[in-house]
Amino acid sequence: MALMSYSHAAATALGDLMRVDERVIALGEDLGRGGVFGQYRGLQAEFGTQRVIDTPISEANIMGAAVGMALAGLRPVVEMRVIDFALCAIDEIVNQAAKNRFMFGGQGRVPLVMRMPIGIWGASAAQHSQSLEAWFAHIPGLVVVTPATPQDNHGLLLSALASGDPVVYMEHKELWGMQAEVDTSEVIALGSARIARAGSDLTIVTWSRGVQPCLDAAQALSEAGVSAEVIDLRTLWPWDRDAVLASAARTKRLLVVHEAVQVAGFGAEVAATVAEALNVPVKRLGAPRIPVGYAQVLENEARLSADKIVATAKGFFK
């Protein structure tokens, strides 16, 4: 076990893989200086500019090159800086990486990890604060990963690189400095949720930066006599239906919480699945359908908070 930040945990996992597999490379903007959040710190100095590649500012070019590299037998890790910029490479992601294995009868594989930091980034406004995980969960052929802790950012990155399929890997922009103990020997299976807190009266399902405010809300609810179970999905595709259904079957209530806009968010998929299978009451809590504002008062309207989660959860018990 070692104390690591969220960013250091990812850099450690990537570095360890690069040492044992020369097919693993990284490409994107500013990787030589460690990346925007330090998630590549020290890697170019160790592996050189041929394996940790600084690219021009052209997301379509970066992603297109990476898809070609993957088809040629490499295992590229592509840095999009923030998910907002990945929209410039949407054709390469959706029409090339995601569909190649299907369209060509499995003759080609695209073992590609696309790092797209998601979420609100303080005072960064509408074009740098989006959570678009539902977009990519909707696309057949893509794996979607949303680590919430340093441990998960280490273990899930290992699994993403080993999966053999194109993985949309969504780290949260405001989690990079989070520190915790990391067991570097633990590999976390894709599609495996984590019970972050056990409970018996209500199931709260969340992911990414939503985990901590949900844990804070669960603590506040416990003081009001409500025992809430918090499940961190960790991956959105595949997602752990069995864990969620088992929990909701026990608690008889489900609340899905995410920072993304509530309208058509991935929470709707979770809520509908549980409602159809169990016929239990479900609620969703996400951001309003507004761009994230620059001013703090406007930004706060889009942010999750324990108070908002508690207020929504209490609606089950009126």
Question: How would you describe this structure in keywords?
Answer:
318 residues, alpha/beta, Rossmann fold, 2 domains, 5-stranded mixed β-sheet, 13 helices, 14 strands, 38% helix, 19% strand, globular
Task: Kindly describe this structure.
The structure is a single chain. By secondary structure, this protein is of the alpha/beta class. It has 2 domains: 181 residues, Rossmann fold (3-Layer(aba) Sandwich), CATH 3.40.50; 124 residues, Rossmann fold, CATH 3.40.50.920. It contains 13 helices and 14 strands. Strands 3-2-4-5-7-6-12 form a 7-stranded mixed beta sheet, sandwiched between helices. It has a 5-stranded mixed beta sheet with strand order 9-11-10-13-14, sandwiched between helices. The protein has a two-stranded antiparallel ribbon with strand order 1-8. Strand 10, helix 9 and strand 11 form a beta-alpha-beta unit. Helix 1 packs parallel to helix 8. It starts with a strand and ends with a helix.
Question: Short description, anyone?
Answer:
By secondary structure, the chain is of the alpha/beta class.
Classify the fold: give the CATH topology of the largest domain.
Answer: Rossmann fold
Helix content class: 25-40%
**Unreliable sequence segments:** none
CATH C-level of the largest domain: Alpha Beta
Secondary-structure blueprint of this entry?
Blueprint: E1 2-5, H1 6-20, E2 24-28, H2 43-47, E3 52-54, H3 59-71, E4 75-79, H4 83-86, H5 90-97, H6 100-103, E5 113-115, H7 133-137, E6 143-145, H8 150-162, E7 167-169, E8 179-182, E9 194-197, E10 202-206, H9 211-223, E11 228-232, E12 235-237, H10 241-251, E13 254-261, H11 266-278, E14 282-287, H12 296-302, H13 306-314
Parallel strand pairs: 2-3, 2-4, 4-5, 5-7, 6-7, 10-11, 10-13, 13-14
Antiparallel strand pairs: 1-8, 6-12, 9-11
Helix pairs in contact: 1-8, 3-5, 9-13, 10-11
